[in-house]
Amino acid sequence: MTIREKIAALRAAAKAAGGDAVLLTTSDPHCSEYLPDHYNALPWFSGFTGENATLVVTGEGAALWCDGRFYVQADKQLAGTGIECMHDGSAGVPTVADYLAARLGAGRTLLLDGSCVPAARARQYAEALAKNGASLQSRDVAGPIWDASGERPALPDTPCRLLTPAQTGATAAQRIELVRAELAKAGATALAVTGLDCVGWLLNLRARDIPNTPLAVAFALVTRDACTLFLADGRLDAADAAVLAASGVTVRGYGELVDAVRAAGAGEVFLVDEQATNYDLYTALATHATVAGPDPIFALKGVKNEVELQNIRECHIRDGVALVRFQMDLEQALAEGRTLYETDIETMLQRRRAEQPGYFEDSFPTIAAWGPNAAMMHYHAEGEVNSRIEPRGFLLVDNGGQYDCGTTDVTRTYPVGPLTDSERRCYTWVLQSHIDMARAVFLDYCTGFALDTFARGPVWAHKINYRCGTGHGVGFISGVHEGPQSLRPHNPVVFKPGMTITDEPGIYETDEVGIRIENELECVDLGENQYGRWLGFRPLTVAPIDTSPVLVDELSRAQIDWLNDFHAHVCETLSPRLTEAEQAWLRAKCAPIGR
User: Fold this and answer.
1) Which residues contact 412 (CB under 8 A, 6 or more apart)?
2) Which of 172, 311, 375, 383 lies at a CB distance of 3.0 to 4.6 Å from 247, suitable for a disulfide?
3) Which of 384, 377, 375 lies closest to 343, judged by CA?
C-alpha cells in the first residue's frame, strides 16, 4: 500500500466505525518516547519516521504535526503523500486541538486508540471538540488495518533480567518504600506505574524490548501493602522471580493492569499523572478516588545515588576510550583518501565500543551527518539517504552507548577538510555556548528554564537560535532521554545535585551547515554562603573537543581556561587505558590553546 492508500483506508475505517476523523500519535500504552515497534503505527501510515508527531485524518484531508527538530525531515518525507506538514509552534500554524475544533462540528466524532494516547492530550482534544458539539471516542481503527497488512511487528518478549544493587545502589524493596513514602506525602495510597523506565527503576528490571533502550514492556501497581508487576508469562527466570518475591513483588499477566485497577479496594486513593497515563487506564482509575500529581518515580530516578554515579563515571571513561580510537580511525581513513559514507560512521563507532567491557548496544541510532545534512537535527543515514563524506566542511556525529554500568550520549563535530570563515565562526559560537553552560554557577532554586539561557547567550548575540532544548537528562542503563529535568524554555524543574544533564547547543542552517557539541554533565554541590546554596556542573563525558576550527580570539579568558582544564582532565582520565601511540595522539588533541 502507498501512503495515500493507507490514509484512504484509515478514512474509510473511521467512517465505517461511525467516526468522522481519526488521530494517531507517537505513543503507546506506556506514554513512551521510544516505542515498541508493535505500537508505532504513525510511521507506517504516514511515512514520517521522526519522533513526537501527531497525524489527523478527516474526510477532507490529512495533516501531521512535528516539532522544530524535524521540520526539514518531515517536509521531505511527506512530500507527495497528500499529508499537510504542520510545523508545530510556528507562527500561523494551528494546534492539533484548534485544527480538530475547526473541522469537526456538532454531532461529529473523533476516533483515537485511548490505550495509546496520554489522558491529558485526549482530554484536551475532547474539550476542544465539545465547544462545537463534537465528541471523542476511544476506538482503535488503525490497528486492524496494520494487522491485516501482515507488516505489524509482534509485541516484544525478550528475556528480562534484574540489575543488582551493586549496579543500582538499591533493592526493589527499598525503592518501593521510597515510592510509598511519596504517595503518603501526596495523600494517596496507590500508583499505577506505566512508564517503562519507571517500572525498570522501581524493580531494577531490564530487557531488550526496544532498540537502544534496554527496558521491558511491563506495568506495575504499588499499594500500601502490595506491589505487582504486570509482565508477559515466561519472561523472568526463576532466580529473578525469587529475588522479586523476596522484595514483596508478585507477577501477573501484561494485559491485566486495567482489571486490577478496577478490582482495587474501595479505600484506595490513586495518584494519577494525566501526562503519564493512557486515556483508557485513566478512565479505569477515575472509578476510584484520585489525587492529581506527577508520578513520583520521575523525580526519584532523576537524581542518581552515589553508586549509580560511580558506575556512570566509569561508563563514560570506557566510552571515551572508544571515542578516541574512533576519531583516530576516522582521521586515518580521511588521510588515506578512503571513500566513507555516513553509514560507515555508525559501524566504525560500534566496532570500537564493542571492544569495551560491558557494552551491549548503542543508546540511539547514530546521527552521522556530513555538511548540510547536519542541519536536520535528528537526521539518520540509511538506505538511499546516505551521503558520501567529502573532504570539506564538517561531519557531525551524535552517538551513545549502553553499558552494564550506564548510558552515554555525546556529540562531536569534526572538520573533514577545509572550512569556510562562516563555518569557523559558527563552530566557535557553539563552543562558547557549550562552555558557558558547562561552567555555570547557580543557586539551588534555579530551574531548567532559567539555566537554558546560559547556553543561548553566545548564539543569541548573533541573532541565531536553535529550535530545541539545550539538554536533557540521561537514564541509567535506560532511555537516553530522561526527565523530569531538562535545559529548555518553560521547564520548571529545580536542579539538584546528582542530576545528570546533556549540554548540547547548536547552530542549524538549512541546506548549509549543522554544528553541535555535546557533553553529559553531573550537577554538583558547590557549597553554601550567606546567599544560599550554590550548584554547578562537572563533565561526565571524557572525549576531546576539536580545537582546530576555533577562532581563539573570540573566546574569553574564562572560556579558554575551561576548555584547557577540560582537556587536561580528559588526558589524565583516559591515558592509563590507552596505548603509547594513542596517548601521544590524545595529548596533541588536548594541547592547551591560547592567544
Assistant:
1) 323, 327, 396, 397, 517, 518, 543, 545, 546
2) 172
3) 384
Q: What does residue 583 show for φ and ψ, rounded to 5 degrees? A: -65, -45
Residue whose entry in the numeric block shows the C-alpha cell 592509563:
576
> What span, in angstroms and rounded, lies between the C-alpha atoms of 500 and 498?
6
| pTM confidence score | 0.91
Longest dimension (CA), the chain: 75
β-bridge pairing 367-370 and 406-407: unpaired
- Edge to edge, what strands does the sheet with 249-252 contain? 191-193, 219-222, 227-230, 249-252
Could you count the other beta carbons within 10 Å of the beta carbon of residue 70? 27
Say if residue 505 is preceded by a cis peptide, omega within 30 of 0: no
Specify the pairing of strand 62-66 against strand 500-503. unpaired
pLDDT in tens, 231-248: 999 999 999 999 999 999
Backbone angles phi, psi at 289, to 5 degrees: -65, 140
- C-alpha closest to that of 549 among 538, 539, 563: 563
Query: What contacts 191, CB < 8 A, 6 or more positions away?
Result: 179, 183, 221, 222, 270, 271, 295, 296
Give tens-digit pLDDT for 522-538. 999 999 999 999 999 99
Say which residue the cell 531490564 belongs to. Answer: 206
Q: Is 137 helix (H, G, I), strand (E, B) or coil?
A: strand
CA angle, 423 then 429 then 431, to 5°: 100
Task: Region of 187 please: left (phi>0), alpha (psi -120 to 50) or beta.
Answer: left
